[in-house]
Specification:
The chain is α+β, with helices and mostly antiparallel strands. The protein has a single domain, classed as Alpha-Beta Plaits. It is built from three helices and four strands. A four-stranded antiparallel sheet has the order 2-3-1-4. The protein is globular, with a radius of gyration of 14 Å.
Length: 102
């Protein structure tokens, strides 16, 4: 199974409460319905394991993908592009990583 791991901070002018509401009501349900997606979760970081209160990223997304070709094939669709545009109004230079389970 492939995982897409997204690390990001919010833009300085983004309202965290507005982002979290959008994520719950729009992002999570729409991404979970994409072809090939097994699960999708978003996490708000709470600090570092070393006890430092600030992590380098505010949010982490993990998308578990069963069918990578189906998933990537859906990314060009109008609905996904609109969702991505909305995400980009909140996220400041997100890092998208593709990871395979060992």
């Amino acid at each position: 199974m492939t995982r897409i791991i997204v690390l990001f901070n919010l833009k300085s002018d983004a309202d965290p409460a507005e982002y979290e509401q959008w994520a719950r009501n729009m992002d999570l349900p729409q991404v979970r319905r994409l072809p090939g997606v097994r699960s999708f979760d978003i996490f708000r970081t709470a600090g570092l394991l070393t006890g430092e209160p600030k992590a380098p990223y505010q949010f982490v997304e993990i998308i578990e993908v069963d069918d990578f070709d189906a998933f990537t094939g859906s990314l060009g669709g109008a609905q996904v592009q609109a969702l991505a545009a909305q995400f980009n109004t909140f996220a400041d230079n997100p890092v998208f990583m593709v990871a395979d389970h060992l």
